[in-house]
Amino acid sequence: MFPEEKKTEFVSVWVRDPRIQKEDFWHSYIDYEICIHTNSMCFTMKTSCVRRRFREFVWLRQRLQSNALLIQLPELPSKNLFFNINNRQHVDQRRQGLEEFLRKILQNALLLSDSRLHLFLQSHLSSEDIEACVSGQTRYSVTEAIHKFASSNRRFPEEDDEGGKKDNSIEFGSESSSSGLGHSCKDNSPHGCKTNPALQES
């Protein structure tokens, strides 16, 4: 018999479907749908869709940077003072920049071991609730939050027959697929990824 071929792990991420949301009578903002498709053991859900706004991406980058000081994080698209939510070109340029930011983040094993990133990508928790969950101040764990809040509306771009890996797929080779990717909070979840002590809360 032929030896079984080792399956390559991948994570695909899309930032899509920008929508104008009304914040109050005077203010509106754009949020974006983030879709994840993966076969990686590091993710609780193999497919998910959530919506996030730009300021939440800013928060995520700040928190990831504070917990990984030796890593140079990718930049977010610059905040344009003349950004117009009704300008399709402005919105699409920002969408592309946010997608590129996430693609680069998901290539880094150390960043991928931060529970905040997983809750950002696979739950509807606010930044405040994410911090509370990671700090153990909620009645639910990270895994429970993802199972409870992850979107059941799994709408994805067209995928090919090779596991859905297109240009926005991130492949982990045989070395990185066992390099300790996983959650960092006090979760005890059986997701098969090793916890990185460097990113745990003190």
Automatic annotation (TrEMBL):
The keyword Membrane applies. Residues 173-183 have a biased composition (Low complexity). GO terms for biological process: cilium assembly; intracellular protein transport; vesicle organization. It comes from Vombatus ursinus. Belongs to the sorting nexin family. Transmembrane segments: none annotated. This is PX domain-containing protein. The lineage of its organism: Eukaryota, Metazoa, Chordata, Craniata, Vertebrata. Residues 153-202 are annotated as: Disordered. It comes from the Eukaryota. Residues 10-127 form the PX domain. It is found in: Cytoplasm; Endomembrane system; Endosome. GO terms for molecular function: phosphatidylinositol phosphate binding. GO terms for cellular component: endosome. It is a peripheral membrane protein. Keywords: Cytoplasm, Endosome, Lipid-binding, Membrane, Protein transport, Transport. SMART domains: PX.
